[in-house]
Specification:
binds iron/sulfur cluster; 210 residues; 21% helix; alpha/beta; globular
């Protein structure tokens, strides 16, 4: 298996329950809900993406010929120290590429494996932390995990229905868009009206981390 990685670097997790944790970020190239090309955005299944996941030309990106090679890169980025090793695997859509071999190779190097997925593909077994961020109008099959992160507001999604899914944490995150203030208001309103939801902000953008 060859893995196409957009970027891979050491940082602090900026979102969600694990916000503030030291982590290696591994961003796979490619997504099943958008090509990543601006000319396709208007007709894509997901239209509000703020991430460049096209190609392998980002910091630490490239093609990796085996799980061992990629896990070795992740471990090198972490450096010395065995405590709290965390890798956050994202995209694009990570479930297009993440497989048992890579999860095993990361575990063998002492990492907890977290994924951030749109939930339209089932999560591979052995993942330690599953964060699903559902997109309106898509068929989400991964309806259980650790963290449900709802980017809000979105058409085609009913938060009341999402509350029936099996997650430990329900987070609402204002959409990063031109109508940012209105999105923040909407997210606050949801958390106030339905306390199962907690407001989540993108801390890495506040402090200027990648
Ligand atoms: S599912 Fe995620 S990575 Fe894919 S286009 Fe939407 S926001 Fe971007």
């Amino acid at each position: 298996m060859t893995y196409a990685v957009k970027e891979c670097f050491l940082t602090l997790q900026g979102e969600g329950v694990q916000s503030g944790s030291r982590a290696v970020f591994l961003r796979f190239a490619g997504c099943n809900l958008w090509s990543g090309r601006e000319q396709d955005r208007a007709t894509a299944d997901c239209r509000f993406c703020d991430t460049d996941f096209v190609g392998t030309n980002g910091e630490g990106g490239g093609k990796f010929g085996s799980a061992e090679e990629l896990a070795g890169r992740v471990a090198n980025l972490w450096g010395n120290g065995e405590q709290q090793r965390l890798v956050v695997i994202t995209g694009g859509e990570p479930m297009l590429q993440l497989d048992d071999a890579l999860v095993d190779a990361l575990h063998a190097r002492g990492f907890r494996v977290a994924v951030e997925t749109n939930g339209t593909l089932p999560a591979v077994g052995g993942v330690d932390w599953i964060c699903v961020s559902p997109k309106g109008g898509t068929d989400v099959v991964q309806r259980k995990g650790n963290e449900l992160k709802l980017v809000w507001p979105q058409e085609g999604i009913d938060p009341v229905e999402l509350e029936t899914w099996s997650f430990d944490h329900f987070l609402v995150q204002p959409m990063d868009c031109a109508e940012r203030e209105a999105a923040v208001d909407a997210a606050i309103r949801l958390a106030m009206e339905r306390p199962k939801w907690r407001l989540s902000l993108q801390a890495h953008k506040v402090v200027g981390l990648a």
